[in-house]
């Protein structure tokens, strides 16, 4: 006779493994990105998810106006900012 709940222990172990290997790290990355987006301010140098380097000109609730080059400004969703890069990165690139 096998234990009817014997399959339950491996299933729990698999679920816990998935949580710590997949779900929890993704939640941490999402939280870090949300904090990054909230902290955007004028003058920051950023990289967009498309790989563009730009300088933030202005920020509102959902959008940021960025300067790609002199007199070339575009408006993007703040969520498309992938990283804030160190100041001077644009000039050095």
Task: Give the helix level as a range of percent.
Answer: 25-40%
CATH class: Mainly Beta
Through-space gap between termini: 70 Å
- The percentage of residues in β strands lies in 25-35%
Structural class: alpha+beta
Task: Provide the CATH topology.
Answer: SH3 type barrels
Number of domains: 1
Helix count? 2
Question: What value does the average pLDDT take?
Answer: 93
Spatial strand order of the main sheet: 4-3-2-1-5
Features:
93 residues, SH3 type barrels, five-stranded antiparallel β-sheet, 38% helix
Question: How would you describe this protein?
Answer:
This protein is of the alpha+beta class and 93 residues long. The protein has a single domain, classed as SH3 type barrels (Roll), CATH 2.30.30. Helix content is 38%, strand content 31%. It contains two helices and five strands; from the N terminus they run αβββββα. It has helices at residues 8-38, 89-92; strands at 45-48, 53-59, 63-69, 72-77, 81-85. It has a five-stranded antiparallel sheet with strand order 4-3-2-1-5. A hairpin with a 3-residue loop joins strand 2 and strand 3 (63-69). The longest helix is centred in the N-terminal third of the chain and has 31 residues, at 8-38. It is rod-shaped and about 75 Å long.
């Amino acid at each position: 006779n096998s234990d009817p709940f014997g399959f339950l222990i491996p299933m729990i172990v698999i679920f816990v493994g998935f949580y710590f290997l997949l779900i929890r790290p993704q939640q941490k990355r999402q939280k870090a990105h949300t904090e990054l987006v909230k902290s955007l301010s004028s003058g920051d140098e950023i990289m967009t998810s498309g790989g563009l380097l730009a300088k933030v000109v202005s920020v509102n609730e959902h959008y940021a106006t960025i300067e790609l080059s002199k007199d070339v400004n575009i408006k993007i969703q703040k969520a498309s900012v992938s990283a804030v890069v160190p100041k001077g990165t644009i000039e050095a690139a």
